[in-house]
Amino acid sequence: MFNFNALFCCIGGLAGLFITLKFSDSRVLVLAVAIASTMLIDLIMRLTNHEVSAPLLDPEAGGYIKIPGLGEFKFVPVWIICISLLILVGLMYFEVV
């Protein structure tokens, strides 16, 4: 369902989660920092990978999650999932959702 690089992204997200839990009481801030640190680790891995031609979208450049049933786009990069989660956290903060 995911590659080994996605595991490193999750470890970075957990580090951001625990550091933010130490200094903040806001649940929304803790979620936002954990998701943003996961996305940051994935983008660093992708931008420093010079073995592929399109590092931002190539699944082998960084972390990806395999979603069955999407056809051609079955490998979704971690940074795209993190952006959608940050939008949901923002909507939760402004009490839209």
UniProtKB/TrEMBL annotation:
Annotated protein name in UniProt: Uncharacterized protein
Keyword Transmembrane helix among record annotations: yes
Organism: Gimesia panareensis
UniProt entry keywords in alphabetical sequence: Membrane, Transmembrane, Transmembrane helix
Transmembrane region(s): 6-21, 28-47, 76-94
